[in-house]
Amino acid sequence: MRQTFLSVGLTLLLLCSAGITSAFEIEDRARFGPEGDGPVLRIISTADTGFFEPMIVSYLAENPGLAVDYVVASSTELMQAIANQEAPFDIAISSAMDLQTKLANDGRALQHTSPATRTLPDWAAWNNMLFAFTEEPAAIVASRAAFADRRFPQTRHELIEVMRNEPERFRGRVGTYDVRESGLGYLFATQDTRASETFWRLAEVLGALDAKLYCCSSDMIEAVKSGELLIAYNVLGSYVANRKDIAEFEIILPTDFTTVMLRTALIPANAPSPDLSRDFVDHMLTRSYGPDSKPLVDPRLGLPGTDTALNRIEIGPGLMVFLDQLKRQAFLNEWENAILQDE
Questions:
Q1: Which of 140, 214, 233, 251 is 20 to 30 A away from residue 257, measured at CA?
Q2: What pLDDT does residue 167 have?
Q3: Which residue, among 208, 38, 177, 206, has the nearest Cα to 96 in the 3D structure?
Q4: 88 phi and psi, to 5 degrees?
């Protein structure tokens, strides 16, 4: 069913041949379903192909004559593709809720109402244009082997103390997002500052320890697995929970508060097949909220049953505050002063 093109050069050529602009940078592309000239649903997404594949497969099982063309890009490149290049995608899926909200607010999304959308919780939709279908926590991820004889930090304060007490052990071996490049990393960081002043003290400690900066959760997870990192901050817990080697990692939902991101979908205003778009959105929502729901987030993350204080990021115009250019630059300046202490 699946055909994946791993060569970026080939991918760009195929995107052009499919009528999709290649002015934005992509990370992966996969085709699911039959080859040929039949109907194709085109999706651009920040979710790794392996993470999202179960949703596509379940949809194609109900629509055997359909194919899905799945393109993976960063949240900022997705924004570029939809807002600036007007690339012809039927669905845009992103973890960067603020950028998705801006796309909808700027008239880049179609409205959609259906029995599936009308059953959504109030926090899971905005203006009938933006729909959340997962809840995914930002976690501290640590190597179990590296902490075999140590207690895992359970709060940001404990994480700070652990690193301060053994600076040479952790120097160059802690990681987090480069918020200048990662839309999700920027969202998590700005939400952390709203929830607590602890973030800036943590950022200063990370900077003093020459923290390594990453574009995405997958790279941080691989760095923890390889031993390059001992611990990584603000990683998507769902990406670890879905791995076969989960036993090698400790997923820590900080008990002071855990920020919870809602992965959202929208239908671009220029979607080539809007009817297919609406049908796929309903499929996702039914699987996420229906009586037989099978959400993408691994149940072992068990958010409702945790004692952690959950800081669920709310969809809406408030998310665009830190997208203001002056506020964004001020935040990045402060972040760079904390993190890039030796540059």
A1: 214
A2: 97
A3: 177
A4: -80, 75
Q: Can you read off the two tokens belonging to residue 217? A: 């959760």
pLDDT of residue 310: 80
Q: What is the pLDDT of residue 16?
A: 47
Both tokens of residue 220?
A: 């941080």
What is d(CA 289, CA 79) in angstroms, rounded to the nearest whole number?
Answer: 27
Give the pLDDT confidence score for residue 342 in this predicted structure.
65
pLDDT value at residue 299: 45
Number of Cα atoms under 13 Å in the Cβ half of residue 333: 6
Quote the CA–CA distance of 27 and 44 in Å, as a whole number. 11
Angle, CA 329 vertex, CA 324 and CA 335 arms, to 5°:
125
* Region class of 240: left (phi > 0), else alpha (psi between -120 and 50), else beta: alpha
The pTM score is 0.82
CATH architecture of the domain with range 2-135+261-305: 3-Layer(aba) Sandwich (3.40)
What are the start and end residues of each CATH 3.40.190.10 domain in the chain?
A: 2-135+261-305, 137-259+307-339
Place 311 in a pLDDT band, splitting at 50, 70 and 90: confident
Q: List pLDDT tens digits, range 27-60.
A: 999 999 998 889 999 999 999 998 899 899 999 9
Return d(Cα 94, Cα 71) in angstroms, integer: 12
Pairing of strands 28-32, 212-214: unpaired
CA atoms within 13 A on the CB side of 9: 0
- CATH, domain range 137-259+307-339: 3.40.190.10
229 vs 244, more confident? 229
d(CA 315, CA 333): 26
Contact 85, 24 (CB under 8 A): yes
b/e 104-114 (16+ beta carbons within 10 angstroms → b) = bbeebbbebee
Average pLDDT (59-75) is 95
